[in-house]
Each structure stands twice: as C-alpha cells, then as structure tokens.
Design brief:
- The chain has about 325 residues and is α+β, with helices and mostly antiparallel strands.
- The strands form two sheets. Strands 2-1-3-4 form a four-stranded mixed beta sheet, with helices on one face. Strands 5-6 form a two-stranded antiparallel sheet.
- It is built from 14 helices and six strands.
- It has helices at about 15-25, 40-45, 65-75, 85-115, 115-130, 135-150, 165-180, 195-210, 210-220, 220-230, 245-275, 295-310, 315-325, 325-330, and strands at about 5-10, 30-35, 55, 60-65, 280-285, 285-290.
- It is about 60% helix and about 10% strand.
- It folds into two domains: about 5-75, 3-Layer(aba) Sandwich (Glutaredoxin), CATH 3.40.30.10; about 85-115 and about 155-330, no CATH class.
- The protein is globular.
- It binds glutathione.
- Glutathione binds near residues 10, 52 and 67.
C-alpha cells in the first residue's frame, strides 16, 4: 500500500510548488497543507528549520529541502524516472536544477520585493494564506508587515540598486532562451519532465504570478508561461530527446547563464565562505556583483562538484561542459 504524505507548503514558495508538482507527477498520495497560522503547531512539531516545504510521512518521518526530498522519494517511487539513463543528460538536468534553485530564485525574489505593486500583491497573498478567514483590514496590515520584512531581505539574494540591472537582464535572457527552446517541445528535454523542469518551472511559475515579471512573460514568453503552468501538473508525454537535438537552443542556457553568471557567482561565494568573509564581490559579465556570503549555496555547489567528479568519466559530458564554459567551475 502506498504511504500517504502531508506536504506543508505555501503557494508563493517556489520550492513548495516544485515538490508538489513532483508528488503529482509521480501520483504519490499526498495532502497539500497550505500552511496557515492554524497549522503552525503541527508544522513546528516536525520542522527542524522554519522553512517550507516540509514533507511528513504517515509514520511521522519529516523531510525538508526540496532537492533531497525529491531524491529520497525517487528511491521509493522510481517510475516514471525524472533522472534519465544517459549520464550526460542526467548531469545537465541536475546542473539546471541547481541554477534554478540558487540563481533563478534571485529573479523571483528580486521582482517580488523590489517593485511596489509586486510587494503589495505578494504581501497580501502571503498574509491571506496565513490567516484565511481574517477580515480584509487585518490581512492588509499583516501584508504590510510581511512586505517590510521581505524587502529588508533583498540584500540576502544580492538584489540592490547596483545589481538590479544584472538580475533583470539575466531574467530577460533566460526568458528569451527558454522561449525558443520550448517552442517545439513540452518539457526542457523533450516529452518527459526531468529534475530540471521541476526546479526551473517552479521559479518561473512564481514569477508569472507577480505583476512585473508576469507582464514580461505574457508579452515575450508565452511558451515559457504555458510550460510553467503545465509543470503544475506534469504528465509523461513520450521520450526525451538526444543532446544533438537539444543543443541548438539549450547551449545558450549553459553558456550564457550557467557558465556566464551562475557558476562564477557560486564559486566566488564558496571561496568567500572558505576565507570567512561575510560579503563578496564578483565580476559577472564585466560588472561587479556584491552579495552577502551564503552557506547553503556553498554546500550545494560542493554536492554538484562531487557528482561531477564521477560523471566526468563520460567524455560526451565533459565535451559539452567544456565547450559551454561550465567545466572549469566544476572541477
Ligand atoms: N533549499 C530549500 C529552500 C526552502 C526555502 O527557502 N523556503 C522559503 C520559502 S520559498 C521559506 O520557507 N521561507 C520562510 C517562510 O516562508 O516561512 C528548499 O529547496 O526547500
């Protein structure tokens, strides 16, 4: 008999949406608990960290952190696999997921808490989620409190007047790349969603609910918007494609975004952490990018590098990652 899980999540949390999409795709029996103040006692009983998503099994085992949650569930629910047999594609998918979780979250967080209409919209939606039956005035007041707290955290993701243009240019370039790539396939690797789809679509789905990036997506990226929606309830539609078929439109993502921005930023963060520095500045595409050092990112880069240490025995993968400029940051 399949086990019943509870997912404590928040509709505005990309990592929560990512895990929920995964459970839906795998048809894993689960209950989505849109975390509100009423559920806080139960949530706190299981959560080691005050973060969503939190997955609790029927036996009372608790899991946090979306990537390890998915990896763990893959053991019990291997089909349909979200990691392909081809080692090169499996690693590229994991690399894109890492980029989504760690870099694209900057796009999402920046737009949501930088622009006033976005701040208002997200603050109110979060407050309504916390207190579903409260009066409007109460929700509005709570929304303002949330908004003040979140705006003060923009610097944690590196969003500042100095980096604003870089973050927004990266978002627009990502949309352009994906728009072309998704013109002829329902998922990033073909007709079957992989780990990369779950991570990246969740960040972009959140963007599609915030007024400023929503406008950009509606005007310039209808294929991306449709894919982000599709990934709320993904379906197996066929096979994945070969790298040869994917390369023309997926190479720019690896080259310009992942090797151009994400990996140098991630490597600089890890180096700053190793030196015990609280803040670091890295030159990205000829412009300085300053951010507070993040422990979590350094650890996840370490996991990715350990994985590459094994995966790089596959010459086709090394060739792709060398040609796109990713290889040097992963060894
Ligand atoms: N690396 C974690 C990140 C989880 C995370 O940052 N969650 C945010 C929401 S997106 C959170 O719970 N923030 C505190 C809160 O909302 O109470 C994951 O992949 O699950």
């Amino acid at each position: 008999m399949k086990e019943q899980y509870r997912i404590f999540g928040v509709e505005l949390s990309p990592y929560s949406v990512k895990v929920r999409s995964y459970f839906r795709y795998k048809n894993i029996p689960h209950e989505w608990i849109a975390r509100s103040e009423d559920d806080m006692a139960e949530f706190s009983k299981f959560a080691k960290l005050p973060l969503v998503p939190l997955v609790v099994s029927a036996r009372g085992d608790a899991m946090q952190d979306s990537t390890p949650i998915i990896e763990e569930m893959e053991q019990t629910y291997p089909e349909p696999a979200i990691v392909p047999h081809e080692p090169a594609l499996a690693f590229i998918s994991a690399l894109i997921e890492e980029y989504a979780d760690e870099w694209c979250n900057k796009h999402m967080f920046h737009y949501r808490w930088w622009y006033v209409p976005d701040q208002k919209s997200a603050g109110e939606r979060l407050a309504r989620g916390m207190r579903p039956s409260a009066a409007d005035v109460e929700v509005q007041a709570m929304g303002e409190m949330i908004r003040d707290r979140m705006v003060s955290r923009l610097s944690l993701v590196g969003s500042s007047p100095q980096t604003r243009e870089q973050i927004e240019a990266s978002f627009k370039r990502l949309l352009e790349i994906l728009e072309a790539h998704l013109a002829s396939r329902p998922y990033l690797f073909g007709k079957r969603p992989l780990l990369a789809d779950f991570g990246l679509a969740a960040q972009l789905y959140e963007c599609s609910t915030d007024p400023t990036p929503q406008k950009l997506m509606t005007a310039h990226a209808p294929n991306v918007t449709a894919w982000a929606e599709r990934m709320l309830n993904p379906k197996l539609e066929g096979q994945i494609e070969t790298w040869q078929r994917l390369a023309p439109t997926l190479t720019p993502l690896l080259r310009d975004e992942i090797a151009g921005l994400f990996l140098p930023w991630s490597a600089a963060n890890a180096a700053a952490l190793a030196r015990g520095e609280e803040k670091f500045t890295v030159t990205l595409q000829a412009k300085p990018f300053t951010q507070e050092t993040q422990k979590y990112h350094a650890r996840s880069l370490g996991v990715l590098k350990a994985r590459y240490a094994t995966a790089k025995q596959h010459a086709d993968l090394v060739e792709i990652l060398t040609a796109t400029g990713c290889h040097t940051y992963l060894v």
